[in-house]
Amino acid sequence: MKRKTAKSANMFRIALFVVFLGFCSGQMIIPPRPLGFVYGNGSNDAFIHLDAHFGPLCPDSKAALPNLKQVADYYGGMKLKLTLHMFPLPYHHQAYLAAVGGEVVSSLTDDNDTYMYIEEVYSNLEILSNDATSNMSSSDVMNTLGDLALACCGVDKARFLAATKIKAMETKARTAWKYSASRGIASTPTFLLNDVEVAADPTWTMAEWRQVIDPLVHGNFFKASFTSQNAGVAVWSGSCPAGTVKCEYLPEKVECCTKGEACIPNVGCRC
Ligand SMILES: *[C@@H]1O[C@H](CO)[C@@H](O)[C@H](O)[C@H]1NC(C)=O
Ligand SMILES: *[C@@H]1O[C@H](CO)[C@@H](O)[C@H](O)[C@H]1NC(C)=O
Ligand SMILES: *[C@@H]1O[C@H](CO)[C@@H](O)[C@H](O)[C@H]1NC(C)=O
């Protein structure tokens, strides 16, 4: 009898586990619109889609943003569409709340203001750090984010705080996170050009981005490897052994291709 009870308790545990699994895995949420915050006038018809997965409290993402905006301004929204995706990292404890705040600002204003909100948060990384917020409740942190939303974008604080309690805002931030995770994003910033990951450095300047993007825009991407003339940057000054050809497949990333290998941008020497 006793044994039977133990057995049914186990069955119950297994059933619970299965139910739990059902809630936590299963299908992805299909977003009603493409995800991410589009910069400026970025057009869906642009040849180049530059997607950046950013940590809302990540200093490296902060460092990359001004250059990305410069790149987007340089090409213009008809040629290049820049989209930021928020991928809050769990070890930046308040990052998820900051991402929810971004969804709220986006809903109450537009993507332009959302960029200003993201920048305002980056300007205040200190007050949102793990240490500075260690004694704060979630409401305290939301309150701080509300101050930032008011400062950057004139969002009424009471409206901001009320909106953070709407389930849809949390669902949006959650959907965005799951999307990034499903694309294999594991660190920030991660950059994708037309959906393919680029081994770009967060510190890449406009000139370095141009080295990669210009050949795509001008349609000669597969004809030539990058040369230092592409964007007026002086790079690699070494030389390749006889019988091989220098292949600068990304700014300052060089391989020497043997005969039969092709120099493939973003990849290197491959057959
Ligand atoms: C957003 O920014 C772009 C580029 O600066 C501007 O042209 C557009 O009018 C802005 N949109 C709104 C709604 O302010
Ligand atoms: C964005 O579009 C608006 C309206 O079409 C236009 O007036 C403005 O110049 C554009 N801004 C940029 C930065 O392209
Ligand atoms: C958090 O509370 C503890 C205990 O009261 C205190 O020692 C610590 O300095 C507080 N930290 C911050 C960042 O306020």
TrEMBL record:
SUPFAM superfamilies: Thioredoxin-like. It comes from the Eukaryota. Residues 1-26 form the signal peptide. InterPro entries: Thioredoxin-like_sf (IPR036249). Keywords: Signal. Coiled coil: none annotated. PANTHER family: ACR183CP, OS09G0542200 PROTEIN. This is Thioredoxin-like fold domain-containing protein. It comes from Mya arenaria (Soft-shell clam).
